[in-house]
Write a structure and sequence with these properties.
alpha/beta, four-stranded parallel sheet, globular, 13 helices
C-alpha cells in the first residue's frame, strides 16, 4: 500500500477517511423544449448510518455534518479536496484491484475541460478526476494520486494519466496530454480520445453552454455514467471544433442541455442541419434544468429517475469544478444523477419537490423496500448542515398506510 494512504485522513477534512474502508468501489422523445419528472437505488453499503448521535460525540464522529441516515458528505473546502475524496471513495485503493488504471488531471480554473473529461470515468476507462495546475499538484491531489497509484491498462491505451492542458502530472509516467485549445477544442479532443479508447462511436452526444457553466454541470454526471461525450456551444454560435465533431458523428442523436437563453434556437437549428435528431432538455434555471435531465427518458438518453430506489449527488450550482469532481459517484455505487442547489442554507423549492416525488415508502416490510441515498458535495459553507438534514428527511424511507 502506498505510504500516502497514511495521510488520507487529512484529505477533505474527511469523514470519507472513516467511511472509505466500508464503501464498495465502483469500476469502476420529446419536442425541442422537452422537460423531464421523479426517482432512487439501493443504499451504498456501509454509508447508511443509524440516527446521528447528539452533542460533542456527534461532532467528534462527524455526525451529522458528514453522514446521516441517508446522506454522505464529501466535505472539502475546495474542488481539489472534493475530487480527492470522491476518487478515494470510489477507489479505496487498499489493494491493486481497488485502484483505477488511470486518472484524469485537469486545472481547477478550467471547469469546461474538467467537465468534458468526466466522460473518461465511463467504462471501459474508469478514470476519476483530480485537480492539478501548471505549477504543481495541490496536496490533496498529490496524496490521492500516490494512493490511487494508477498503472495503466489496455483500456487506457497504456496511459496512467490523461492531462487536460499543461497541468503538472507529478511523477506519473505514461501521461497522455490533451491539448486545451479553448473549451470547444478541448472537449472535441476528449470526445475523439474517448471514441478511440472505447472502440466505438458514442450512443449520444451532449451539447452544453460554455457561457453558462451551471447549465453544463449536470452533463458531467451523465457523461461518466453513459460514455456520451460533451461538446460546447455558445449562446449564438457553434464553435468550429464542435461543428466538426458533430459532422463526424452525423448519425448520432444530439441532446442540448439548457434553455434557449443559453444556447439559442438558431444554434439548435444549425446542429439539426448536420444531425437531424436533436432535442433540447432543459429547465428555466440550473436547478430545474438538472432535474429535467434526472427525469428525462429519451431512447436510452437521460436518467429516467421518476420513482424511488436511486442514488443522487447534490452540489452547488456556482461551483462547476465540483460537477467534475463528483462525477465518479455517478458511475459507481448508487449511480446517482447530479442535482443542484443554489444556496448554502435553503433547499430550492424545485429540488424539494423532486425529492418529495421520489421519496421511498413501504407498507409492511421496510427491509424489502427501495432506498434513496444522497451524496452531498462541499463543506458547510457550500451546503450547510440544515440543508443536508432536510435532504436526509426527504430521502428517508416512510411508512405508507396501515399494515393489513
Amino acid at each position: 500500500m502506498p505510504g500516502a494512504l497514511k495521510g488520507i485522513a487529512a484529505l477533505v477534512v474527511l469523514a470519507i477517511a472513516f467511511l472509505v474502508a466500508a464503501i464498495v468501489g465502483g469500476g469502476g422523445g420529446g419536442s425541442e423544449e422537452d422537460e423531464a419528472a421523479p426517482g432512487a437505488a439501493a443504499p451504498v453499503p456501509g454509508t447508511q448510518t443509524t440516527t446521528a448521535p447528539a452533542g460533542e460525540t456527534a461532532s467528534e464522529l462527524g455526525y451529522p455534518a458528514f453522514a446521516t441516515s441517508n446522506t454522505t458528505r464529501v466535505g472539502g473546502g475546495d474542488a481539489a479536496s472534493n475530487a480527492a475524496g470522491v476518487a478515494l471513495a470510489v477507489y479505496p485503493s487498499t489493494e491493486p484491484r481497488l485502484r483505477p488504471a488511470a486518472v484524469v488531471l485537469a486545472d481547477e480554473d478550467d471547469w469546461a475541460g474538467a467537465i468534458a473529461a468526466s466522460v473518461l470515468m465511463a467504462e471501459p476507462v474508469g478514470a476519476p478526476l483530480l485537480f492539478s495546475g501548471e505549477d504543481g499538484l495541490p496536496e490533496p491531489s498529490a496524496e490521492a494520486l500516490d494512493a490511487l497509484d494508477p498503472q495503466g491498462s489496455g483500456d487506457t491505451g497504456g496511459s496512467r494519466a490523461f492531462a487536460v492542458g499543461g497541468v503538472d502530472a507529478g511523477d506519473v509516467e505514461n501521461v497522455r496530454r490533451i491539448g486545451a485549445a479553448g473549451p470547444a477544442g478541448a472537449a472535441a479532443a476528449i470526445a475523439r480520445l474517448r471514441e478511440r479508447l472505447a472502440g466505438r462511436a458514442p450512443a449520444h452526444i451532449v451539447v452544453v453552454p460554455f457561457q453558462d457553466p451551471a447549465f453544463a454541470m449536470p452533463a458531467a454526471a451523465w457523461a461518466a455514467r453513459s460514455g456520451d461525450p460533451i461538446l460546447f456551444a455558445g449562446r449564438d454560435s457553434l464553435p468550429k471544433p464542435t461543428a466538426r465533431a458533430l459532422r463526424r458523428n452525423s448519425d448520432v442523436p444530439v441532446f442540448v442541455l439548457g434553455p434557449s437563453s443559453t444556447i439559442s434556437s438558431e444554434v439548435v437549428r444549425e446542429i439539426a442541419e448536420t444531425n437531424e435528431r436533436v432535442r433540447r432538455v432543459s429547465g428555466e434555471d440550473p436547478v430545474s434544468s438538472a432535474i429535467a435531465l434526472a427525469r428525462y427518458d429519451g431512447g436510452g438518453f437521460g436518467w429516467n429517475v421518476n420513482d424511488p430506489g436511486h442514488g443522487f449527488v447534490v452540489a452547488r450550482s456556482d461551483s462547476p469544478p465540483d460537477a467534475a469532481a463528483a462525477a465518479p459517484l455517478s458511475a459507481s455505487g448508487t449511480w446517482g444523477a447530479l442535482l443542484l442547489t443554489d444556496s448554502a442554507d435553503t433547499l430550492p423549492g424545485a429540488l424539494r419537490g423532486y425529492l418529495l416525488d421520489v421519496k421511498p415508502g413501504y407498507t409492511t416490510d421496510p427491509t424489502r423496500a427501495f432506498y434513496n441515498h444522497v451524496w452531498v458535495i462541499g463543506d458547510q459553507e457550500a451546503i450547510d448542515v440544515n440543508q443536508q438534514a432536510e435532504i436526509d428527511e426527504l430521502a428517508e424511507l416512510a411508512k405508507i398506510g396501515d399494515a393489513p
